[in-house]
Amino acid sequence: MTTFVDTDLASIAGPVLTPADPAFADEVAGFNAAIRPSPSLVVGATTTGDVAAAVRFAARTGRRVAVQATGHGLVDALDGTVLVSTRRMAGVAIDRAERTARVQAGATWRQVIDAAAPHGLAPLNGSSSGVGVVGYTTGGGLGPMARRFGFAADHVRRFTIVTADGVARDVDERCDPDLFWAVRGGKANLGIVTGIEFGLLPVARFYGGGVFFAADAAAAVLHGWRAWAPTLPDDASTSVALLQLPPDPALPEPLRGRSVVHLRFCHLGTPDEGERLLAPMRALAPALLDAVAEMPYAAIDAVHMDPTTPMPVRDRGITLATLPTEAVDALLAQTGPDAGSPLTMVELRLLGGAIAREPLSPNAVSGRHAAFSVYALGVLAGPTATAVPQRADALAAALQPWAAGEGLVNLLGPADAELVARQWGSRDRDRLRRIARRYDPAGLFAANVPLPA
Q1: Nearest to 184, CA basis, from 114, 134, 226
Q2: Pairing with 74, which of 22, 87, 216, 233 sits 20 to 30 Å away (CA)?
Q3: H-type helices in 286-386, by residue range?
Q4: Do residue 234 and residue 304 come from a single domain?
């Protein structure tokens, strides 16, 4: 580890590393192995004080600041920045009586799920419990219970954030209300969140999991899902994905090395009601594997079965206002079993329900009024790697006639300023810009989803 004489850096308890340090590469690595971060300096923060010192140093030396916990949201190499790594700040505290969790910046959803479960409580985590809490939540946070309870950001009560002046602020609806509104949806554009408190839900179990069909059933399943999904009650969330699976021995034998259609389902009512709701989809085609059952909430990863190992990927997301037959046909033409698509996954997700309702404490979360989301991902390896970005963009272009006016920033993928600007409606976008100019007038923070100037 490099020794520094700078006053702020010398006060940092965690490691401060330059590219010359042997531990630098591991410290900066993110979940997307296609992107190799190249900051000028990385600070392994252990406290809010460490984060504040790193921000002051960056501002004083003319560098920008970025933040990373698990690195799931990494879309940029962060050249020349001071990167604050928060993975050591992983504390989780559950208040059973208040039904709240208070977590530090580097905590993952798996830590919160495991801490809350003994109390019969659950957080509004996403499809993968290995994702960091803070980055997911500040981008809105769309998970398997979202149609019943809304976005994760809707349940935030307060947070601690280090702003561009190097000051740590405790923020809630009454203290810095504009900042409280903006950070819940505005990602890391306003500062570095070092602690966050949010409500938990009285959920101990669910009926759900996945049903896998052969790829030749894709048209029948997607068209059937298009008609079926909007009839579901808010207690049910669902998505359907076209997957090209590797010959991985960790996968169930019927799925290894196959192209499949994966129906995802999560129901918070009784198993009998869940079976009744799911019956029309089960009847569409023979299942290769049906793994839907009643499960403890701690098994929520079984719904999406997201990969847990870093890999090089390119992703792209779009939201839809409507999903007519023609939109499904357009999707299948680009990525169906006969399309020769290089994409590893293309997911259609039902929105609506509580997602579409304004929370008691309004926030800057975008995409609230979309009806569906489409998210595509391809692995940048092997002979089809170079075709992945073009096909992902072509899919988004093919679905543009049915696009919603706003998008989901956590599922956007790499984007220029113009595309980022379109994720919010004009009123919220203008308000975000005004608040960003107030709290970060020099544009110190280099966020994964940067607000346009």
Answers
A1: 134
A2: 22
A3: 325-335
A4: yes
Domain interval for residue 18: 9-85
pLDDT tens digit string along 170-191? 999 999 999 999 999 999 889 9
Q: Crossing angle for the helix pair 325-335 and 218-228, nearest 10 degrees? A: 150
The torsion angles phi and psi of 29, rounded to 5 degrees, stand at -60, 135
d(CA 22, CA 43): 14
Domain total for the chain? 3
Inside any domain, residue 435: yes
Identify whether residues 224 and 333 lie together within a single domain: yes
**185 three-state secondary structure:** helix
Please tell me whether the overall predicted TM-score, pTM, comes out greater than 0.85 for this model. Answer: yes
Is the pLDDT at 2 greater than 90? The verdict is: no
CA dist list (Å): 101 to 10, 97, 182, 205, 223: 32, 11, 21, 19, 40
Q: Which of 85, 115, 133 is the last residue of a domain?
A: 85
Last residue of a domain, one of 30, 53, 85: 85
- Report the CATH number that the domain containing residue 371 is assigned in CATH: 3.40.462.20
